[in-house]
Write a structure and sequence with these properties.
This protein has 495 residues and is an alpha/beta fold. The chain is built from 19 helices and seven strands.
């Protein structure tokens, strides 16, 4: 493919550099155009758009970074209107992107560039506009794909200077362009942008100490409350992505409390995750943190239902409550286990393509059946879920990551252990003993849970934490914070 040379001017002043507003999905998004697949959208931003736009002399900005707690604020509208270039990535056919594109088309006749992964088919209303395709994977953008996509953007920008790109203006060429006033407080905008860039740099460097220091500086800085909360949210989410849950909790507490309508889904999910990972010094405080996490997630689920992420977090909170209740000898521990199983099962039903809640549901159903009197109905439910979880892992093409390999191992282990009957006998022995379908032997006695002892609690805690059954060897004894799932930063898979 030859060498790709990027042209960057280190002497360019930010105020003198033309702006390119990018409308695109961000984070990990379900892709309606690819069945059950989920797209790591930020890979396009980091690997393609940022280098390509800087190479072409533009300063890239993005709505989720430049905008603040209001969904549609004056700064975002001003950027859509006044930016020299508007870039829309149509990946996942995100409705927010189409809304922003429609506003741009109505206001400005030219300076709009449409991109999309090659598998996306543009909707009818814009299929007459030129959409520049690029290649990428669902999870990553390879070096070869990045080079080709950057060249696509470069060629598109070189070949479309001054052309009318709005279908509205193509039909009504005598319209007058709409020109919104500049941002009302340019000094504040510069301060917010500077802070955003500082946070982004600390994230790229994985500098948790700098992120913590920035949070302290933001709390002391004279900023509008909504802007402070937005920047604290960015900082706290970054800390959580680095596994610094206690530090992330301290930073996210203010913006999470301010979001009384629970409109910030990712903020509330990640704040609940920090509560689940609480390192409270007493069991009572740990239980209180877990209960708060469950209550917040239940409220979020009422406000935004049908989220496998929320259900997976609910399952995690209930599972940790169950383990702690076992350790404390509480009699109502079975209710916590039931809530965990229900939440993980609901998460699988919402998104069968997410293997995390599925494998947790399988393991907990099996544990309840074989150790806590759940009976054969739980065993049957676990067996029914196993093929779904296996499909969720294997459906993605390409090399598997460590968590996919681990989940396939857990599937095989659960398949083997599910041959045991609830009374501890093997499948064949259980049949010879005449166990009824509800787990009651023919002599009329009930299968009861084994006595909960301290060693058993330790084994169950390790089993549930690593989704492995009692009696097996957990993974190497690295510190808990070092064993983080490498899924996206807004993922709920770390329990």
């Amino acid at each position: 493919m030859g060498f790709l040379v990027l042209r960057l001017d280190p002497t360019a002043r930010r105020e003198e550099t033309p702006a390119a507003f990018v409308a695109m999905p961000y984070g990990t998004r379900a892709d309606a155009t690819r069945g059950l697949n989920r797209l790591e959208a930020d890979e396009t931003w980091r690997r393609v758009l940022v280098p390509a736009l800087y190479d072409s002399g533009y300063r890239p900005i993005r709505s989720d970074i430049e905008s603040h707690l209001d969904t549609i604020d004056i700064n975002m509208l001003s950027d859509i209107n006044r930016s020299d270039l508007f870039v829309a990535d149509l990946a996942t056919l995100n409705p927010n992107v189409f809304w922003e594109l429609g506003v741009r088309h109505a206001w400005v006749p030219s300076g709009t560039l449409l991109l999309a992964p090659r598998w996306v088919t543009a909707p009818f209303d814009i299929n007459h506009a030129r959409v520049h395709p690029y290649d990428r994977g669902m999870k990553t953008v390879s070096d070869r794909q990045a080079v080709a996509a950057i060249r696509t953007v470069r060629a598109a920008l070189n070949g479309s200077c001054g052309e009318t790109s709005s279908p509205v203006w193509a039909v009504f060429p005598h319209l007058e362009p709409v020109r919104l006033p500049a941002r009302p407080d340019p000094g504040l905008s510069r301060a917010l942008t500077r802070r955003t860039e500082q946070i982004s740099l600390a994230v790229d460097l994985r500098d948790e100490h700098r992120l913590t220091a920035l949070a302290r500086e933001l709390c002391a800085q004279d900023l509008p409350l909504d802007s402070r909360h937005a920047l604290l949210e960015m900082t706290g989410l970054a800390l959580v992505s680095l596994g610094r849950y206690e530090a992330g909790r301290a930073v996210l507490e203010q913006p999470a409390a301010a979001d009384t309508a629970f409109s910030r889904i990712r903020l509330q999910q990640q704040y609940a995750l920090t509560l689940i990972h609480s390192e409270a010094p007493t069991s009572a405080q740990r239980l209180a943190d877990l209960r708060e996490a469950e209550l917040r997630l239940l409220r979020l689920d009422q406000r935004h239902p049908q989220s496998s992420e929320t259900q997976a977090l609910l399952g995690s909170a209930a599972k940790q409550t169950w383990l702690l209740s076992l350790q404390l000898g509480e009699r109502q521990h079975e209710a916590h286990l039931a809530r965990a199983i229900d939440a993980y099962s609901n998460g699988t039903a919402v998104d069968p393509g997410d293997y995390y809640p599925g494998i947790n549901a399988v393991s907990l159903l099996r544990l309840r059946a074989q150790y806590f009197g759940g009976g054969t109905e739980d065993l049957d439910a676990a067996r029914d879920l196993l093929p779904v979880v296996r499909f969720a892992v294997r459906r993605r093409p390409g090399p598997r990551n460590v968590w996919e390999h681990a989940t396939l191992g857990e599937i095989a282990l659960n398949e083997h252990l599910l041959r045991r009957r609830p009374n501890g006998a093997s499948h064949g022995e259980g049949a010879r003993d005449g166990a009824a379908r509800d787990g009651t032997p023919r002599d009329g006695t009930r299968v009861t849970a084994p006595r909960v002892t301290a060693p058993r609690v330790t084994a169950l805690r390790a089993a549930a934490r690593w989704r492995m059954p009692p009696g097996t060897t957990p993974w190497p004894s690295t510190p808990r914070t070092a064993r983080r799932c490498p899924r996206s930063a807004n993922s709920s898979c770390c329990t």
